[in-house]
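Supplementary Methods. Inverse-folding protocol.

Structures were first reduced to a discrete structure-token string of length 133. This string, shown here, constituted the complete conditioning input.
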């Protein structure tokens, strides 16, 4: 289950209606075939490093689309970039960033977003994150 990877075999077996042994065998098989990519810990935002969270939608010059992969890798290596997605629609890439300040986001924009092959971008600063649940 995607909600809690720390469930015990008994808890999982009750949730899906299988014996604990059958659940364990299925989990092992799903891991082996790659259906379960990884098991992660989701850190409560209260404990994450402080800063400004920004979603950035990036458009590329259609004549330079071959450079998207290279730039996406550069984005992914930047310490302020938490996630990088290739997306559909008017934009080509979406970033999730956590910057120490708006000034550090501005520095990122100057270095990456105001340079070719980027044709434009929109930034959306998170004002408040609502608790899940």
């Amino acid at each position: 289950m995607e909600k809690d990877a720390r469930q015990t075999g008994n808890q999982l077996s009750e949730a899906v209606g299988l014996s604990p042994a059958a659940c364990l065998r299925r989990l092992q098989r799903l891991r082996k075939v790659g259906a379960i990519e990884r098991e992660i810990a989701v850190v409560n935002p209260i404990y994450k490093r402080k800063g400004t969270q920004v979603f950035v939608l990036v458009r590329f010059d259609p004549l330079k689309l071959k450079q998207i992969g290279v730039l996406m890798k550069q984005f992914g290596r930047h310490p302020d970039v938490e996630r990088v997605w290739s997306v559909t629609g008017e934009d080509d890439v979406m970033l999730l960033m956590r910057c120490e300040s708006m000034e550090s986001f501005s520095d990122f924009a100057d270095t990456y977003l105001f340079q070719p092959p980027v044709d434009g971008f929109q930034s959306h600063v998170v004002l408040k994150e609502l608790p899940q649940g």
